[in-house]
């Protein structure tokens, strides 16, 4: 059975985007990038909401075709395109080869099925999708950047408390990595 792991880079006050929808603050330094690369190589599949998919897909598939990238970015691009990608959306009509489209309203049923039929880690990206799947998320991996945004899109916009336990933390580059598991 797969583990559903939600990870994101967030501000110290808990936002993944600022009030304008930007996330320039979240550019990873080299050490954080290395951790993200390792996480990407270990993923059995990437599960994205529409917005996160749009942020990731074009830049990283294009990057995978380039030969002038710094090695750390080329490494992530290779891992990204080599990993199955699933986007959950009710607004997209088509997706390119290598990506599977699932209607957002079917997310819980599809992720429940994927967890039962997949070995390894299903890497979840996108705060809205994560909120809709909160009862299925096993792990939360937070990369906390030392910036206070004062508002924006929260890391996990859930309407109720989620009990977690800390299983690891460490300084990473200019921030902090925290790993939590659902407290059953």
TrEMBL record:
Protein name, per record: Deaminase
Species this chain originates from: Streptomyces hainanensis
Taxonomic superkingdom: Bacteria
InterPro entries linked to this entry: DHFR-like_dom_sf, RibDG_C, Riboflavin_Biosynth_HTPR
Biological process annotations from GO: riboflavin biosynthetic process
Residue intervals of the Bacterial bifunctional deaminase-reductase C-terminal domain: 4-176
Extent of the signal sequence: none
PANTHER family: 2,5-DIAMINO-6-RIBOSYLAMINO-4(3H)-PYRIMIDINONE 5'-PHOSPHATE REDUCTASE, DIHYDROFOLATE REDUCTASE FAMILY PROTEIN (AFU_ORTHOLOGUE AFUA_8G06820)
Example GO molecular function: 5-amino-6-(5-phosphoribosylamino)uracil reductase activity
One Pfam match: RibD_C
């Amino acid at each position: 059975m797969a583990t559903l792991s939600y990870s994101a880079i967030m501000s110290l006050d808990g936002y993944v985007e600022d009030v304008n929808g930007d996330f320039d603050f979240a550019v990873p330094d080299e050490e954080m990038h290395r951790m993200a690369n390792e996480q990407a190589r270990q993923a059995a599949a990437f599960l994205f909401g529409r917005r996160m998919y749009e942020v990731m897909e074009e830049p990283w598939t294009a990057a995978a075709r380039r030969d002038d990238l710094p090695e750390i970015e080329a490494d992530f691009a290779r891992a990204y395109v080599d990993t199955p990608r699933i986007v959950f959306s009710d607004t997209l009509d088509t997706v390119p080869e290598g990506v599977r489209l699932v209607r957002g309203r079917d997310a819980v049923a599809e992720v429940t099925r994927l967890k039962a039929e997949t070995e390894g880690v299903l890497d979840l990206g996108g705060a809205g999708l994560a909120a809709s799947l909160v009862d299925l998320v096993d792990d939360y991996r937070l990369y906390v950047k030392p910036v206070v945004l004062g508002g924006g899109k929260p890391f996990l916009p859930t309407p109720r408390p989620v009990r977690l336990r800390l299983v690891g933390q460490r300084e990473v580059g200019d921030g902090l990595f925290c790993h939590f598991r659902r407290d059953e």
